[in-house]
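Entry for the shared binder. Reason: the reviewer on the internal report wants the predicted structure included alongside the sequence.
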Amino acid sequence: MSDVTPHDSHGSEPERLGYSPVADVPHALRMTDTDPKAARRAERQVAAMFLLSMLLTIAFVVAYIAIDKTTTVYIPVFGDVGASTFVLGLTLGAAIFLIGAGAIQWAKKLMPDVEVVQDRHELASPASADEEALANYERGKSESGFARYKLIRRTLIGAMALFPIPLVLMLRDLWTAPAGSPSPADLLSVTLWHDGLRIVTDPSLMPIRPEDLPIGGLVSAIPEDLEEVQELEQNMNARTKAAIILVRMAPSDIRAQQGDGWDYQGIVAYSKICTHVGCPIALYEQRTHHLLCPCHQSTFDLADAGNVVFGPAARRMPQLPIGVDEEGFLVARSDFAEPVGPSFWERG
């Protein structure tokens, strides 16, 4: 939107409150400035974009309800994709695009485009600032043609009124558990770890003996059966919950643990997932036994039960009780006693 209404000759109209003076440069009139038919044609184009946006929003709602989530469709280059995901993305994306494209066409074809000059002024607002701001608002309302182009106004209001519906509708997908299924909090509270499950290095999948880890050393580790679970489930959800770090320190340096005797000869195992927003952590300072999250600098003391010593994290790092099996390899003795990953309201 420009700062003034079109002038037949630059500077010929007295300056009004809320209007900047017209620049003394050549200005070419557009076809819509001189031809009423061209202006009406541009108005219909803009209204058509807004109307099509409304129809696509309605199509989104219909597709959300009608298309089964398990249905797939073949798309060249991408291969087989979920039909529901493809149609929902296409309809919502196009609906948003058409609102923006219509607004751009409106501004380029129907709103004033006269070049103006705005003088520098003191940063402090003058006493008349409120009056000038109101005048600017009235000028903008007049120049935009919002009141004059009724077709554009009505279709824009319709498109913007329907636009939030998909956003509200998609809230339903935050959790749609069948009757009797566990809640998200329950799912996130259980990992692959259980008594006797071997701990292997990530990504080489080598079992670990206590003597393999020197004092001050750190190893990223996962459950022995993680690869099989990922292949079966075709996702990495299990990894995001089960990833751990092993750290060895002098047993005398351990001041507190989350359970009695949860270490093995000074080797402690903690979740690798930060309790703030879920970033993976492996920055360990041997001298202080602090574990630092690289995302937001939450710091945890692994010698003091993984408690938070700095940063935005609200919960300590969950500790995994460990021991050794008959062959002398490190194993878990149970699952985590606390939920892993970021905090949220259902965890208190």
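Summary line for the report: Residues 1-14 have pLDDT under 50 and may be disordered.
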